[in-house]
Write a structure and sequence with these properties.
alpha+beta; four-stranded antiparallel beta sheet; 34% helix; disordered C terminus
Length: 120
């Protein structure tokens, strides 16, 4: 997909990527293209491949995640474009500070837990 979609979509995708701590690993480049791999947020055993190409027609990014395959703006594409410095400024305006997403290992305390803590 070319980076011509609504900047608000990219802004929301970047917010999700930063809130979830999406990490990227560069795999290589050839001057006009760069390849990256990102670990899936929802399925940690899955890795998504990304290709970024900057050419005369503009910036194009391809992602192997479900949204990327459907040519929708995704958090992985936003993360890699931000990393490469290729997101237009309009996508970065009014970006709120992300709140870290809860990890699967984090446990929420209940009212019963609070009573146990007071007794200890």
């Amino acid at each position: 997909m070319f980076v011509t979609h609504d900047p608000r979509l990219w802004r929301r995708a970047l917010y999700r990527a930063e809130a979830r701590g999406i990490s990227l690993e560069r795999k290589g480049s050839d001057g006009t293209k760069a390849w990256y791999v990102a670990t899936s947020f929802s399925r940690t055993e899955t890795r998504h491949g990304l290709c970024v190409e900057a050419g005369p027609a503009g910036v194009e990014v391809l992602c192997s995640c479900e949204a990327g395959q459907a040519e929708r703006v995704c958090q992985y594409a936003a993360a890699v474009l931000r990393h490469c410095g290729l997101l237009p400024d309009a996508c970065l305006e009014e970006l709120p500070v992300p709140v870290p997403a809860p990890t699967p290992l984090r446990r929420v305390l209940t009212v019963n837990d609070l009573y146990v803590l007071e007794d200890a």
